[in-house]
């Protein structure tokens, strides 16, 4: 039934001449009754008036509604009113159509052909619009997908940076806390509470000492050590001094060594016993004076 109802039937109206099925016999009353109730007279009047096309308002409006902005894409009113608005927009002349109770009648085929030509042009425009809308929808969907992906990547990366920053801050807080606790317990024997602070103090003192070592044996400067490194500092100072003395002695020439030995002997003999001895210390001893005498 659904298939049958979806079709558009075309009936061939047959007039039954009599009920006895006899040839050449016409029952006038029966024939008039059939002509009246089959609508043949109305059909003849329409054909005689010259209306070449007729369609129900719903079908006509559904086919040609795209030709009028007021009826496209949907018309919410009655089909009759929609067809009237559509015909007004298409500039139909009054003699070209008639409006029935359920159908529209078009007199001239050229009017219908012009409407069909306008519909074909409109179809091209609608196809272009549909393609543009579909491409726009597809590109917007693609862009939205890319945007969501970018947001997901940005969110992940920001989360990673935030976690790294939080871990870094956590480590910094731990170091500061250990440092403060070590400072509080700095005078106690080495224990887990102050070992970090003591190690840091030791490292800082050694780095300071590295940058400020004495330059020669006469340089008596030495960085002040922390209380926990007094003994180690003294040992390092003695080692440093021994190393500088050894290096200095290694560079002394035999002639200069002899001068120093003589200066030591002279110091033992004349120091605090001769008034002008301090002025003579910088002057070097001569091996012989014969050259000057000659």
Which keywords apply here?
mainly alpha; three-stranded antiparallel β-sheet; 11 helices; rod-shaped
What does this structure look like?
The radius of gyration is 61 Å and the shape is rod-shaped. A three-stranded antiparallel beta sheet has the order 1-3-2. The protein has helices spanning 2-5, 28-37, 40-49, 57-64, 79-89, 109-184, 195-211, 230-251, 254-270, 277-280, 290-293, and strands at residues 53-56, 97-99, 103-106. It has eleven helices and three strands; from the N terminus they run αααβααββαααααα. Helix 4 (57-64) crosses helix 5. With 294 residues, it is mainly alpha-helical.
* Global mean pLDDT: 84
Main β sheet profile: 3 strands, antiparallel
> Could you give the order of the helices and strands?
HHHEHHEEHHHHHH
How do the strands of the widest beta sheet line up side by side?
1-3-2
Percentage of residues assigned to helices: 55-70%
Structural class: mainly alpha
Shape, per Cα inertia axes: rod-shaped
What portion of residues belong to β-strands?
under 5%
| Discrete helix count | 11
Number of strands: 3
- Based on CA atoms alone, the radius of gyration comes out at 61 Å
Distance between the termini: 155 Å
Pick out the low-confidence regions. none
